[in-house]
Amino acid sequence: MNIARKGPGTGSRSPRARLHTTAPRRSLNGTWQFRIFPGLAAAPDDGWDGDDAGWALGEEWTSIPVPAHWVLEGHGRPAYTNVRFPFPIDPPNPPDENPVGDYRLVFDAAPEFLEGAVLRFDGVESAAEVRLNGELLGETRGSRLTHEFDVRGKLRATGNVLAVRVAQFSDASYLEDQDMWWLPGIFRDVDLLAVPDGGVWDVFAVTDYEATDGTGTVDLSVTRNGAAGEPARFRIPELDVDLEVTGGGVIGVGGVEPWSAETPRLYTAELVTPAETVTLRLGFRRIEVRDSVLLVNGAPIQLRGVNRHEHDPERGRVFSPERLEQDLLLMKQHNVNAVRTSHYPPHPALLDRADELGLFVVLECDLETHGFEEIGWRGNPSADPQWRGAYLDRMQRTVHRDKNHASIVMWSLGNESGTGENLEAMAAWTRAFDPSRLIHYEGDWSSTYVDVYSRMYASFEETRRIGEEVLTPAPFGATAAEMHRRSLPFMQCEYAHAMGNSPGGLEEYQELFDRYPRLAGGFIWEWIEHGIATTGADGRRGYLYGGDFGEHTHDGNFVIDGLVSADREVRPGLVALAHWYSPVRIEVTDGAVVIQNRYDHVDLSGLRFVWKAEADGRELGRGELKVGRVASWEKVVIALPDELADLAESPEIVTVEAVLVDKQLWAEAGHVVGRGQRAWLTPAEPPLETGVPPRSAFDPVSLRLRELGGLRLDGPVTSLWRVPTDNDRRPGWEEMDKPAYAARWELLGLNRLLTRVVSATEQDGALVVRTRTVPPGRDCAVDAEYVWRQAGPNAMTVEVTLVPDGTWPVEWPRLGLDLVLEGAPTGMAWRGLGPGPSYPDLAAGPFWGDHEASADELLTPYVLPQESGARAGVRHASIGTEQGTLVVTVLPGGASGGVEEVAVTVSPYSRKTLATTAHQHELVADGRTHVSIDLFQAGVGTAACGEGVLPRYRLAARPGRVTLLLESREG
Ligand code: GAL
Predict the structure, then answer these.
(1) Which residues pair with 25 in a beta bridge?
(2) Is the shortest distance between the CB of 560 and ligand 1 below 6 Å?
(3) 795 C-alpha vs ligand 1 centroid, how far in Å?
(4) Which of 57, 79, 718, 835 has its CA 20 to 30 A from that of 559?
(5) Exactly one of 125, 148, 494, 799 is catalytic; which is it?
């Protein structure tokens, strides 16, 4: 086995399409014999791979499931790196420490395979040498690419010995440096496929749709096995197509309904030969670029996309049909219309489902050489002609396998592989082979050989500039390359990094995508967090990340950056995304509802618009709006219905929801695709105050409240810090010269504020406590005044004024009050925005109403513990603990300019605990309820990869005032 050369694999047949065929298939998945060695030199040639089915296995042999990654089956450990290679850059040599696994399967073959068959491997990381009955079939390269070996004449009826030696690292590893776990093994299906004489070896059906007259064509190329004999028949029964084909040709099919992500109309076609029948699902559509605008079927489209890696918390990149289904349904349910298969071809089942459900796919080749960036791209394979064959082979395998899928709108050459002629050669081959789709590659900003100008994490300002630059004539003297780039639509193949409490800025990007026709949208980074499942000491399920497996080189939790957890729990970022990606925008104004159709291809007839009026937590009425035909991207203004005006009580909240009329493959009828609201919440009635509260309720030293109607608590105290989020831990790209916020807060001591009581006096029937809160060793302060009044036996009001003093060298994450209640939290009920959390730049999705959440739901279980869970817009909250309930009501700010609503965070953990625990499942609760009531909060941004918090969502030192009614209740 030669794993140190620059070429592609050897011995396999030329790549072809994945066919749904009647020809026999036998899965060789199952339990295989297995042994492992620490390096190639240690792996013996002891006859294990000969043709003796009864060969006596030594004691080093064990068994392993196929497909699987051996490091997740108890042999060695997974390892995570982002950009860096975990081995020396010494191409094409892999390191000596290179686990090698020997896989062996003895199997019988039914007669239908003996005439002609191939052995198909869909995924082996990273290189395999394959032998059948002692005979070398060849080697694979391209871990996520299919290899088929011809076994005609090599297969026997019984006792076949299939021997596969797999090296974890090989020359191929230099081309597979994606930001993900290194997970060796045979991890996708192994099949034996009959290849009957006269059957179909390959089909390429290029569909097209002419929007001006609504007709479609299929340009068909058919390759038969062996001597073709009779011509094949090609049928599309629904379109009355039934003809004989030899090589192929262009077939006009007349009027058709077009395919798009919004109208995933498929036609079943059959290619019939005496030996086998192949079924195709055809979607007619045209992808093109006109005047730097991306069009599908003649209409501009917006890619509302996500990047999807394959990941399962137990099985890594092993395919699971349930996970795939979960992913694609969740995407559709959250208004996602596009997927980039970062950074390799997915399991082929994804494409079948994307065709059916309606998702545009950017199908990416298995290629990334990012680690070379660490050495200034010296020796980058993309620019070394000796690697050309490997590059072309990867692209050809990528394109051939999936070329018949309507959902694929772009072929992507790979990710972050620098620049070089090998990439150009891939593009040239692809363009010649399949001119029906666009070519994408982000890594070469010259963009000379691609059809779309793609970037990742381009800032708001740069995105705006790119959108705007084509609205004016090209500058004098622009080069041909510049002119070419100006002709291209722009997309962000990655943007809005969803790591932890993130991504901020969705609204601002969406606003730009809406404003400039050149901007074709983008793909959030990324869909799934790649946590590896574990069980905590107390049996809690948790996830591990880089460094948890003793790796010498790793990138920590940078692999945990998804819109859904590894178990596909929806993170708040996805809730916000669903709002911005919604195909309908609804705005409730004083007397009307403004509705915008944001579908690219259809009107709004698939949606019903349901209104609901509420006051004081009660529904006053509901009904349906009559919305006539609203064409794509059109906006209509609809008067509020009379029933609403005639309600006996005036509503505090009017909500209009757009819901599905009919059940879809991806959601039930009634599923909400968009929502608009208007709230006019009535301020709470201030209570009658009954005098100065007893001093005994307060701590004698800190003057913090210790008891309220029997409820034991401690607070409030002025608080500015939050547990650093993943974004807080890194400087935003616009501030790379500065330390990250988390470090600046820590340096200043924002997490260690000390509060001194300045005075405590009785004044005007109130207890007035003045405090000064200062970081240790500093003199910048927040001066607070708490005016306490008794408001019943179990109630007090407190009017809080917070005023910064001195110079604060860094913006704050929040300005608020902390309280600790005895007893663990049991949940919260509140009036405000919910049910999920929101932060100023991650605020869409949650809506006005009366909400409740259990204690578990109140915090988002980010794998790396961090600030989470703030419920914003809160007017009134009942915070339940094991000890009793604290009811917090925001009283009208009135002339004093106090805030009318607060953000409430309730946690069983102190911020210190959250900040010092590395994994969610390791958090230890202290049996108390930690409450924060914030007057202001800063945004979250996307500094983990991209821009930090935008200036308008930052929180410079500022004063604030709030009046709260605090009541205790039993239970
Ligand atoms: C991009 C890269 C992704 C991922 C992301 C950060 O540069 O293409 O694979 O690493 O950054 O999470």
Answers:
(1) 193
(2) no
(3) 52
(4) 835
(5) 494
**In the prediction, which pLDDT does 727 show?**
98
What tokens were used for 137?
């079939």
Q: Please say whether the beta carbons of 163 and 102 come within 8 A.
A: yes
Are 501 and 862 spatial neighbours (Cβ–Cβ below 8 Å)? Answer: yes
Ligand 1 atom nearest to CA at 497: 12
Question: Does residue 689 line the site of ligand 1, with CB under 6 A?
Answer: no
C-alpha span between 160 and 51 (Å, rounded): 7
Round the CA-based radius of gyration of the chain to a whole number and report it: 31
How far does the centroid of ligand 1 lie from the alpha carbon of residue 383, in Å? 21
Nearest CA to ligand 1 atom 11: 945
DSSP assigned state of 924: -
Residue 170 in contact with ligand 1 by CB distance below 6 A: no
Three-state SS string across 313-375, please?
CCCECCCCHHHHHHHHHHHHHCCCCEEECCCCCCCCHHHHHHHHHCCEEEEECCCECHHHHHH
Does ligand 1 come within 6 angstroms of the Cβ of 527? no
Q: What is the pLDDT of residue 590?
A: 86
Cβ of residue 561 lying under 6 Å from some atom of ligand 1: yes
Question: Would you say the CB of residue 364 lies under 6 angstroms from ligand 1?
Answer: no
Tens of pLDDT, residue by residue over 180-237, are 999 999 999 999 999 999 999 999 999 999 999 999 999 999 999 987 678 999 999 9
Please name every residue paired with 327 in a beta bridge, in sequence order, or none if there are none: none
Cα–Cα distance between 54 and 50 in angstroms, integer? 10
Q: Say whether 270 is catalytic.
A: no
- On whether the pTM is more than 0.85, the answer is yes
Nearest CA to ligand 1 atom 3: 179
Q: Measured in angstroms, how far is the CA atom of residue 563 from the centroid of ligand 1? A: 14
Distance 496 CA to ligand 1 centre (A): 11
Residue range 694-735, pLDDT digits in tens: 999 999 999 999 999 999 999 999 999 999 999 999 999 999
22 pLDDT exceeds 80? yes
**Nearest atom in ligand 1 to 558's CA:** 12
Report whether 442 contacts 457 (CB < 8 A): no
Q: What is the reported pLDDT for 228?
A: 63
Cα angle 127-128-130, degrees, rounded to a multiple of 5: 160
- What distance in Å separates the CA atoms of residue 398 and residue 439, rounded to the nearest whole number? 13
pLDDT in tens, 119-146: 999 999 999 999 999 999 999 999 999 9
213 dihedral zone (left: phi>0; alpha: psi -120 to 50; beta): alpha
Q: Could you tell me where the beta strands, DSSP code E, fall in 122-240?
A: 124-125, 127-132, 135-141, 147-150, 160-167, 180-182, 185-186, 190-194, 200-210, 215-224, 232-236
- Atom in ligand 1 nearest the alpha carbon of residue 82: 10
pLDDT at 547: 98
Rounded distance from Cα 81 to ligand 1 centre (Å): 11
Sign of torsion over alpha carbons 594, 599, 603, 607: negative
The response to whether residue 945 sits with its C-beta less than 6 Å from ligand 1 reads yes
Distance from Cα 913 to the centre of ligand 1, integer Å? 30
User: Is the minimum distance from the CB of 611 to ligand 1 under 6 angstroms?
Assistant: no
Q: Which residue carries 């794993």 as its tokens?
A: 3
Cα 13 off chain centre by:
35
Q: Is 416 a catalytic residue?
A: yes
Integer Cα distance of 565 and 488 in angstroms: 35
Quick check: 154 pLDDT over 90? yes
How big is the CA angle at 28 (ends 26 and 33), to the nearest 5 degrees? 155
Closest CA to 222 of 404, 61, 5: 404
Distance 723 CA to ligand 1 centre (A): 24
- Tokens describing residue 179: 């930001």
Q: Is the CB of 456 under 6 A from ligand 1?
A: yes
Q: Indicate if ligand 1 lies below 6 Å from the C-beta of 179.
A: yes
Q: By three-state DSSP, how is residue 821 classified?
A: strand
